[in-house]
Amino acid sequence: MLRIPSGKPVDLASYDARATPAGPSGKAEGLEATTRAGERLAGLQERLWAAATAGDRRRILLILQGMDTSGKGGTVKHVIGHFNPSGCRIKAFKEPTAEERGHPFLWRVTRALPQPGEIGIFDRSQYEDVLVARVRGLVPRRQLGGRYGQINRFEQTLAEDGVTVVKCFLHISYEEQRARLLGRLDNPDKHWKFSTGDIEDRLLWPDYQKAYEIALERCSTDAAPWYVVPADRKWYRNWAISRLLLEHLEALDPQYPKADFDVEESRERLLEIR
Amino acid sequence: MLRIPSGKPVDLASYDARATPAGPSGKAEGLEATTRAGERLAGLQERLWAAATAGDRRRILLILQGMDTSGKGGTVKHVIGHFNPSGCRIKAFKEPTAEERGHPFLWRVTRALPQPGEIGIFDRSQYEDVLVARVRGLVPRRQLGGRYGQINRFEQTLAEDGVTVVKCFLHISYEEQRARLLGRLDNPDKHWKFSTGDIEDRLLWPDYQKAYEIALERCSTDAAPWYVVPADRKWYRNWAISRLLLEHLEALDPQYPKADFDVEESRERLLEIR
Q: 3-state DSSP call for residue B65?
């Protein structure tokens, strides 16, 4: 996974979606490394959660974006599945409801944020409001232009409140998407995952890539950088995102809080009352 | 696990918290059986979720109640951890907030219900309002008395809306609780899980057991029965709850929905556009 530098033009075509930079050498090794990382993630998550009980406000927000079939759902299943589910706050953003449309676009996002100690996961996010909104022309261009700065200020405020924002663009190739969509059509148990709208979006592929390039360029900030995750190989995608989460959690280095009560006295009382 | 019959007096002392009825013969076998059950649970969960995309409103609500250290959190980690976290809606109920106290007691519960296709998990629930509320005398006795019927009507309505309510009382012995509390005190990494309030509640053990007996007797209904899960052995508790969820999900028998689009036409279009 590669961190997008702030404010430099982004050319997604220059990133190889099948690449495996810095990763394990193959699938078997990758799966094993991801499982091992999962155990460490679960341990760090418990510490993060425990620290929050003593007032530590820090938490993680993982944002997953990418074209249809890029593996946002698969990442939640295979990476987030390693965490204790009690400490995860997962939100999949769909087309806005009537109520959501009546509010500023950041409203629904704000309501879904992780609490201190939690791992928050957004499957789609505020970025839909500069992606599909741009491609489909859902808002006037001027209003759209203002949203990038609004998102950056929003994320800056989150960072200052203790939220480590990790934004991943799951980068798949045009060819891989076709293969995955065909795979869904070939398996009746996967028909429910398919919608003819997926084909309409696929026809707009270049427009979406362009919209992503603009979002990544304008919104990869020091407070909340964007990462491009090559996602044609599922095992690499899972490994890379596990790795990213691990790096961030290790940097936070959460600690079990010290007892705020007299341990010896509590032990004696427990032994006393029969 | 034993289903509590409707309206019959309940004597918790007659249930052995170390028992392993109908279960695997030992820990190793139990862990293996739970893992195997977990795979089937995950498969059924996907079907339930898929069915909901086509309008099936059915869902599961697992309610976990029990004394401190009875393993509510452990159940979420080890049993619910087998599910895809995207399809789980987990809520741990704490002491009511000022806002929650301003509403009827079922208000906060209603807001945390699973959506169609989801597995909802309550770590504590509306039952706190007839348990701690009774033991600590938080509401007048007359008001308390009305709550059992209110809970039953609430759960009846849930059942009619497609919610399979599975209520588990995690039954641990007084001795096992002491051992677990002492275990938390002995390990500095677990001090955060301990509170001196746990000792205060332990002093009220007989009152809590009585409050549970009344709740189980009055609120084990055909629409939403109570199960007593012997919980002194963690592996058995996890196996028993997995087993219960499996039975209920298998009874629902959710099906992948049929395609609501022309599969062949979609395939042709995908192959056409290069």
A: strand
Residues 199-258 of chain A with CB under 8 A from chain B are 199, 202-203, 256-258
Which pLDDT score is estimated for A66? 98
Buried b / exposed e along B155-193 (16+ C-beta atoms within 10 A): beebbeeebbbbbbbbbbbeebbbebbeebbeeeeebbb
- Quote the pLDDT of residue B273: 87
Transcribe B16-55 into DSSP letters: -TT--TTS-SSHHHHHHHHHHHHHHHHHHHHHHHHHHHTT
Residue range B210-230, pLDDT digits in tens: 999 999 999 999 999 999 999
Is B94 near chain A, with CB under 8 Å? Answer: no
Confidence of residue A266 (pLDDT cuts 50, 70, 90): very high
Q: Largest alpha-carbon pair distance within chain A?
A: 73
Q: Please judge whether B181 and A270 are an interchain contact, meaning their C-beta atoms are less than 8 angstroms apart.
A: yes
Residue A270 to residue B90, Cβ atoms within 8 A: no
Angle, helices A27-53 vs A234-252, to 10°: value is 30
**Which of B77, B85, B203 is opposite residue A90, by nearest beta carbon?**
B85
The model's pLDDT over A230-263, given as tens digits with 9 standing for 90+, comes to: 999 999 999 999 999 999 999 999 999 999 999 9
Is the pLDDT score of A194 beyond 80? yes
CB B256 within 8 A of CB B45: no
Pair type for strands A2-3 and A226-230: antiparallel
Q: How far apart are CA A104 and CA B162, in angstroms?
A: 34
- Interface ipTM: 0.95
In angstroms, the CA B210 to CA B204 distance is 10
CB contact set of B14 (below 8 Å; sequence gap of 6+): none
Interface mutation vs chain A, best among B69, B192, B198, B258, most A CBs within 10 Å: B192
d(CA B39, CA B37): 5
DSSP tag of A131: T
- Which residues make beta-bridge pairs with A2? A228
Supply A14's token pair. Answer: 């220059």
The 3-state DSSP class for residue B140 equals coil
Which whole-number Å values give the CA distances from A247 to A164, A166, A252, in the listed order? 11, 11, 9
